[in-house]
Design brief:
By secondary structure, the protein is an alpha/beta fold. The protein is built from 7 helices and 15 strands.
């Protein structure tokens, strides 16, 4: 019998971690293991409400559980944020190509995240850190609106302690009481890059407007378009290249992306929406 590709895998919400006032991580136990690559995405169904695309934030080396970190923004995500442990949801996928991890081997990897954009990148961070000796350096730059909205706070030290070639710097948009760290948009963290750019790959995930300015800044720093990968997390439906909902120029982001090399999309008019 041919399996219906739209039929989700039954999954149970095992735990819910509150990351920020607007972001929660859902620890899901699917009824069968799900193998995925960092950067591939899933369609998550809340029964009776609907489904939406999310990239796992957990390690691709763990197949029996999956973590997905979700910003509350509309119908499906509001319903997800109301769930309690034990709730049943559905997962279908994985879809998309995933991050170009093979191209990162031996290189200085620059990871630039904004807001909940650090969630899909966390899967890549785990993937790289778990094999850290294969990369020259893993440099993580992260920005959020304010200290309360910094996602995965408890893990920053854990990541830098995991291997000698990992560094992490963060910033908040505007000054806040009690905050002694850096202030300014995430692009300001690229002002003092001490990376060998000719031997680097940069990956960025965050709001479209942030991706635009991060890209301009990276080009200004000396990165070439083939060295830049952007998570184009636009609206999606089927996830399988059938409905045409997610096209950008000649590409279907659900199949050809969602992480796209800037070299491929740079000439598409209005590519940042
Ligand atoms: C490949 C992919 C991976 C994603 N990974 C994550 C993730 O790891 N964590 C996470 O929190 N979110 C992620 N998103 C975004 C997430 O899919 C949307 O926030 C979600 O679909 C909103 O559904 P909703 O029913 O709650 O909101 P809706 O009621 O559909 O919309 C509420 C608001 O959100 C906007 N919106 C809806 N979808 C998107 C979208 N794809 N991008 C930007 N704005 C949108 C709408 O325009 C509207 O303003 C990802 C999206 C894609 C395409
Ligand atoms: S989501 Fe249907 S074609 Fe991409």
């Amino acid at each position: 019998m041919i399996e219906n590709p739209y039929y989700p895998i039954d999954s149970v919400v095992e735990d819910i971690i509150t990351e920020t006032p607007t972001i929660k991580t859902f620890v899901l136990k699917p009824s069968r293991p799900i193998k995925f690559k960092a950067g591939q995405f899933m369609q998550l169904t809340v029964p009776g409400v609907g489904e939406a695309p999310f990239t796992p934030s957990s390690s691709p080396n763990v197949e029996d559980k999956m973590e997905i970190t979700i910003l509350r923004t509309g119908k499906v995500t509001e319903a997800l944020h109301e769930l309690e442990p034990g709730a049943k949801v559905g997962l279908r996928g994985p879809y998309g190509k995933g991050y170009p991890v093979d191209k990162m081997k031996g290189k200085e990897v620059l990871i630039v995240g904004g807001g909940v954009g650090l969630a899909p990148l966390r899967s890549l961070i785990y993937c790289l850190i778990e094999d850290a000796s294969k990369y020259k350096r893993i440099s993580i730059k992260y920005g959020a609106k304010n200290p309360e909205e910094l996602c995965f706070k408890r893990q920053y030290d854990e990541w830098t302690r995991a291997a000698g070639n990992v560094d992490f710097t963060n910033t908040i948009d505007v000054p806040a009481p009690g905050w002694n760290g850096r202030v300014g948009l995430v692009t300001t963290l690229l002002d003092d890059l001490d990376i060998d750019i000719s031997d680097s790959i940069a990956v960025s995930c965050g709001p479209q407007i942030m991706l635009k300015f991060v890209t301009l800044k990276l080009l200004d720093c000396g990165y070439e378009p083939p060295q830049i990968y952007l998570s184009m997390n636009r609206k999606m439906s089927c996830g399988m290249g059938k409905c045409g909902r997610c096209n950008v120029g000649p590409y279907y982001l659900c199949v050809d992306g969602p992480d796209m090399c800037y070299d491929k999309i740079k000439d598409i008019p209005n590519v940042f929406g």
